[in-house]
Design goal:
Elements (H helix, E strand, L loop, with lengths): L8 H5 L3 E5 L6 H9 L4 E4 L3 H9 L3 H9 L3 E5 L7 H12 L2 E6 L17 E5 L5 H4 L6 H7 L3 H4 L4 H18 L7 H13 L7 H8 L3 H13 L3 E4 L15 E4 L2 H8 L9 H21 L6 E5 L5 E6 L3 E5 L11 H9 L4 E6 L5 E3 L2 E5 H9 L5
Parallel strand pairs: 1-4, 1-5, 2-3, 3-4, 10-11, 11-13
Antiparallel strand pairs: 6-7, 8-9, 9-10, 12-13
Helix pairs in contact: 7-13, 9-13, 10-11, 10-13, 11-12, 14-16
Length: about 375
């Protein structure tokens, strides 16, 4: 099944060279072949012969591209040969060629030749399948919350097996092969604890205790997760004037299914906290994908006061969004949004839920989740 992705690579490359970053199996190679196979030279650095040739003689890149007669070049898995970026830099300047440089890990690029491309290549991201990309396939929320949106998982008849294989592949290919951590069994134990703490305030001491490692090691392990694009640190919004905000970040994995595979969760009860957490996580990842694909450079954060008033997501100084899995909205669900609305901190306030009836509660617009996502992807929220 070919799914139309929201990210348009041709439009990006008309403007600039790009790094296309995304976790393994989000569909970068598939997207490239769908959109660029007629226009670009596609070089896969996972191919042994090409890898050996370009890693030992980076200048061969110009010869290969010139022979193909293409001015748009894709280098798939650029982190495999980070010093090749020196040659990319030279060819951007000398030939005015456009490059699409894909990667599933940022660690090897940090501090290497990639900094020479500052200003010469922008960054785009590819995420798991989003709601708007799956509407033509009769989007199944319950399936998505449990198994996530990785194409090979969501479209599979055996999603449990695909998720288990994905986790093994991540540990084998990203962690062991790249020697990103010293003790893989310890890191594996940390992954389970981090998954169980997904979307919560990070407590390095508690997670370290549960993982049987030092808090400093926990901090480093979270850096590894960020560098391999397995998740994001969601920073707190701290501009509230009347209520002191907490300063601790949260961590969200990039996909709900991966969280459940790491945590050993096999099912979600519709009325459980696990379901509510997954629903909140899903909306957050939709917001992240929307902001990235539409090139809206607004920060996605959350707000929580020291008195435990909270709003799940805030975007720049524009929008505050609370997410509830309830089928019936109650006044208590509005308390965090009302606190921010009292300060006039944002322009728009939304409560998203499973309640089928839209309503307006003062400045707060309460919407069924599907209506909210329709408006979001139609550019009617921001």
């Amino acid at each position: 099944m070919e799914i139309q992705r929201r990210l348009n690579l041709k439009q990006l490359l008309e403007k600039k060279s790009f790094f296309l970053m995304g976790p393994r199996s989000t569909g970068k190679s598939t997207l490239i072949h769908q959109q660029l196979k007629e226009d670009a030279l596609i070089l896969d650095l996972l191919e042994d012969e090409l890898y050996l040739r370009l890693s030992s003689h980076p200048q061969e890149l110009e010869k290969v591209a010139s022979a193909a007669g293409r001015s748009v070049i894709v280098l798939d898995e650029i982190q495999k040969i980070p010093h090749l970026l020196n040659e990319v830099h030279r060819l951007i300047e000398k030939k005015k060629w456009r490059f699409l440089l894909t990667g599933s890990s940022a660690r090897k690029l940090k501090g290497n030749a990639s900094n020479l491309l500052a200003g010469r290549a922008w960054v785009a991201n590819l995420f798991p399948l989003s709601w708007c990309e799956l509407t033509e396939t009769q989007f199944d929320l319950e399936k998505y919350l449990l198994f996530g949106g990785l194409p090979q998982v969501y479209l599979s008849d055996e999603p449990h097996e695909e998720l288990a294989a994905y986790v093994r592949t991540y540990l084998a290919e990203e962690i062991r092969a790249e020697a990103l951590v010293r003790n893989v069994p310890v890191f594996t134990r940390f992954l389970e604890v981090a998954a169980l703490s997904n979307g919560q305030l990070i407590n390095f001491t508690q997670i370290g205790s549960d993982s049987h490692v030092a808090p400093s090691t926990v901090r480093e392990h979270y850096f590894v997760l960020e560098d391999t694009l397995m998740g994001i640190l969601l920073q707190p919004w701290a501009k509230s004037k009347k209520r002191k905000a907490i300063q601790t970040a949260k961590f969200y994995f990039f996909d709900t299914g991966v969280v459940h595979a790491l945590a050993g969760i096999k099912q979600l009860d519709r009325h459980s906290n696990l379901y509510g957490n997954a629903f909140e996580h899903f909306i957050g990842m939709e917001l992240r994908a929307y902001l990235s694909y539409t090139r809206k450079h607004e920060d996605l954060k959350f707000w929580r006061s020291v008195n435990d008033q909270e709003v799940d997501y805030v975007i720049g100084d524009e929008v505050a969004i609370e997410v509830k899995s309830t089928a019936k909205i109650a006044p208590r669900h509005l308390s965090g949004l009302r606190a921010l609305a009292e300060e006039r901190a944002f322009k728009k306030y939304f409560l998203i839920s499973h309640d089928a009836l839209p309503s307006k509660q003062g400045e707060i617009l309460c919407l069924p989740w599907e209506q909210f996502l329709e408006r979001l992807w139609a550019d009617d929220i921001l």
